[in-house]
Write a structure and sequence with these properties.
The complex is a heterodimer of chains A (145) and B (398). Chain A has 145 residues and is an alpha/beta fold. Chain A has a single domain, classed as NADH:ubiquinone oxidoreductase Nqo5 subunit (Beta Polymerase, domain 2), CATH 3.30.460. In chain A, 22% of the residues lie in helices and 32% in strands. A five-stranded mixed sheet of chain A has the order 1-2-5-4-3. In chain A, a hairpin with a 2-residue loop joins strand 1 and strand 2. The mean pLDDT of chain A is 86. With 398 residues, chain B is mostly helical. Chain B has one domain: Cytochrome-c3 Hydrogenase, chain B (Orthogonal Bundle), CATH 1.10.645. In chain B, the strands form three sheets. In chain B, strands 1-2-3 form a three-stranded antiparallel sheet. In chain B, helix 2 runs antiparallel to helix 3, helix 4 packs antiparallel against helix 16 and helix 11 runs parallel beside helix 16. Classes of the chains: A alpha/beta (145), B mainly alpha (398). Chains A and B meet through strand 3 and helix 3 of A and strand 6, strand 7, strand 8 and helix 14 of B.
């Protein structure tokens, strides 16, 4: 699978690696949608099931969004990663995997990552009127933001 | 006008009805905004987050061991399976091999947990639909399983019994006797549950053809577990991507056809039988030996050593207070919980605390498909549909 990925996405990915028995593909935001769609639709990949989508506050480099894909056909998992800077904006993958809807809302709510093209990007876990994004590393553990 | 309801929704002939978050059949604090045309649901919008405790944020500030009891509190109906997913993820990062006996004990206890979780689901689901008596039968058996838990580790619900490297302690011999007795009689009890519901005309009327979801929609919406299988997709992580030695046990994965509430019921009923089968095999083939890996950097020394030697005491103190460093990297470990794919994503920066812990809880994702299942259904069926997804709000909101 690793070689297939390297061959297929030759210039679109920034990194393809295998660690702890798991495949990771890193892309730039510009290539995210194209690569995601190909991963879902190409017969050799068929990652039809989006298990998980989450954001991480990496500190200085700021944010990273991680997509965990699953191919029911090939019984294979894949991690798709994309880096973004301060004031993070990424294209939404709801049109590819509808399940991303709530996941993206959660990442928006807890980390403040904006997904452009999301049908209804609003807070999901925290109440309306809440300010701040609790999973950011600079959000205090105690007291108020 | 209640909050969260837009002016657009408030116009016209359609009625907006607020269901929950204090509605008994929402199984916790779930609120659903129903848009109704007469008695037909045009749109159902779940509103969640009432039970958010910031578990992921808390975990970032705890050592790897301290996180284990927090995981129990996500899905409080199947605490041990949550423990398992988490410790598997940490073990994978550490490259730690778990002794065979610990693996088998984990499988045995996890399958008892699955039975227990399905029992509480079936009891409350039937109660929601007006069948009072099944609940009393289910709780009788569930009580037996909780008693077994108590015998193993002293706690009845939040066990926190699994450890990175194995399980906390050897189980008492009396537990095996009790488990054997319970499992011998259990399949017969499932038959009794079925006599109460499977051919019951009221039960069938309330559940057949209700809340249908196709296999394509189920996959697109990330539905997993019995819900996905009831739609005809034979996907079970225990079979497809086995963990903790599940590949050594014989069991079948029940699959439905129609993807309605009734099929989800049948799938779970059969899963209870299959879980009992796995338990029987685990009891029969239970290997002897240690229940914790010998890895002094991660696993504290035996109690005897801690209490009698200063070196043991210091060793124990250091692991408990400082924790242990976990190699830098990232991992995603998923287990098949009674509700579906329960995944743990850990990003480690090489320190003693997870840099980021994301839990992919099946209830959160499965609840998303409620909107699809509820479309065009009667309002009275909402209760049946919500019940059939089997959500645990502790897990939805985290």
């Amino acid at each position: 699978m690793k070689d297939d990925l390297a061959q297929f996405f030759a210039d679109k990915t920034t990194e393809i690696k295998e660690a702890f028995g798991e495949l990771t593909v890193a892309v730039t935001p510009a290539h995210l949608l194209g690569v995601a769609r190909a991963l879902k639709e190409e017969a050799g990949f068929k990652f039809e099931f989006l298990s998980d989508l989450t954001g991480i506050d990496c500190g200085s480099g700021r944010f990273e969004v991680v997509y965990h894909l699953l191919s029911l056909l090939h019984k294979q998992r894949l991690r798709l990663k994309v880096k973004t800077d301060e004031g993070p904006k990424l294209p939404s993958v709801v049109s590819i995997w509808p399940t991303a809807n709530w996941h993206e809302r959660e990442s928006y709510d807890l980390l403040g990552i904006v997904f452009e093209g999301h049908p209804d990007l609003k807070r999901i876990i925290t109440p309306d009127g809440f300010t701040g994004h609790p999973l950011r590393k600079d959000y205090p553990l105690k007291g108020e933001n | 006008m209640p909050e969260n309801i837009t002016a657009e929704q408030d116009q016209g002939e359609r009625l907006i009805l607020n269901m929950g978050p204090q509605h008994p059949s929402t199984h916790g604090v779930l609120r659903v905004i129903l848009e109704l045309d007469g008695e037909v649901v045009v749109k159902a919008t779940p509103v969640i987050g009432h039970l958010h405790r910031g578990i992921e944020k808390l975990a970032e500030n705890m050592t790897y061991n301290q996180v284990i009891p927090l995981m129990d509190r996500l899905d409080y109906c199947s605490p041990l399976i949550n423990n398992l997913g988490y410790v598997l993820a940490v073990e994978k990062l550490l490259g730690l091999e778990v002794p065979a006996r610990a693996k088998a004990l984990r499988v045995l206890l996890c399958e008892l947990t699955r039975i227990q979780s399905h029992l509480i689901w079936l009891g409350t689901h039937a109660l929601d639909l007006g069948a009072m008596s099944p609940l009393l039968y289910m709780f009788r058996e569930r009580e037996e399983i909780l008693d077994m838990y108590e015998e193993v580790w002293g706690a009845r619900m939040h066990m926190a019994y699994f450890r990175v490297g194995g399980v906390a302690a050897e189980v008492p011999a009396s537990f095996f006797v009790r488990a054997k007795k319970f499992l011998a009689g259990f399949p017969e009890k499932v038959d009794i549950y079925e006599t109460l519901l499977t051919d019951n005309p009221i039960w069938r009327k309330r559940t057949q053809g209700v809340g249908i979801i196709s296999s394509q929609d189920a996959i697109a919406l990330g539905l997993s577990g019995p819900g996905l299988r009831a739609s005809g997709v034979p996907w079970d992580l225990r079979k497809a991507l086995p963990y903790s030695g599940y590949d050594t046990y014989e069991f079948t994965v029940p699959v439905g056809k129609g993807g309605d509430v009734y099929d989800r019921y049948l799938v779970r009923i059969e899963e209870m039988r299959q879980s009992a089968r796995i338990c029987e095999q685990a009891l029969k083939t239970m290997p002897a030996g240690a229940v914790l890996a010998r890895e002094p950097k991660v696993v504290p020394p035996e109690k005897e050593r801690v209490m009698t030697t200063i070196e043991g005491l210091i060793h124990h103190f250091k692991i408990m207070v400082e924790g242990y460093n976990v190699p830098e990297g990232e991992i995603y470990a998923a287990v098949e919980s009674p509700r579906g794919e329960l995944g743990f994503y850990i990003r480690s920066d090489g320190g003693p605390r997870p840099y980021r812990l994301k839990v992919r809880t099946p209830s959160f994702v499965n609840l998303e498909s409620l909107c699809k299942m509820a479309e065009g259904q009667m309002i009275a069926d909402m209760v049946a549909i919500i019940g059939s997804i089997d959500i645990v709000l502790g897990e939805v909101d985290r």
